[in-house]
Design a protein that fits this description.
Length: 142
């Protein structure tokens, strides 16, 4: 009888461990998928840092399909990044102002360049599927 009780207790402990581990794994997975979305300012900063470090696929993930569709045939994303940042290497990005209006946002930023100068920019963003994306500037829309 003691042997049977001991075996039963071992099985119960093993099942409890299995359920605990699978519960922890599920919680970790849902936590990884439910991370808060980036703010428009965070998206702009991530785009400029990735572009300045020539991580173009990462920079492209922060662009709306409408903006991607406007990429020039010659030079593509590299040309767009060079136009936005300029020929001088960037030292940092400062978000000056962020204004959200529904599913649209405007971010004013200041690029700090390596030789001490600054360059002020403004980006238009749109929210698509819960994520902010840099979009075609309002002035360029037809």
């Amino acid at each position: 009888m003691d042997r049977r009780r001991s075996s039963l207790r071992s099985v119960v402990i093993m099942l409890a461990l299995v359920f605990s581990i699978s519960g922890l794994a599920a919680a970790a997975q849902s936590g990884a998928n439910s991370s808060p979305a980036m703010t428009p300012g965070q998206v702009v900063r991530a785009f400029y840092v990735a572009a300045a470090e020539n991580r173009l696929p990462e920079a492209r993930r922060h662009m709306s399909p409408a903006l991607i569709a406007t990429l020039p045939q010659s030079g593509g994303l590299a040309k767009v990044c060079a136009d936005r940042i300029g020929p001088v290497a960037m030292r940092g990005v400062q978000i000056v102002r962020e204004q959200v209006d529904g599913d649209a946002a405007t971010v004013s930023l200041r690029l700090h360049l390596v030789y001490g100068s600054t360059k002020d920019q403004q980006e238009t963003l749109v929210q698509e599927n819960g994520e902010w994306k840099i979009d075609v500037p309002k002035a360029a829309r037809k």
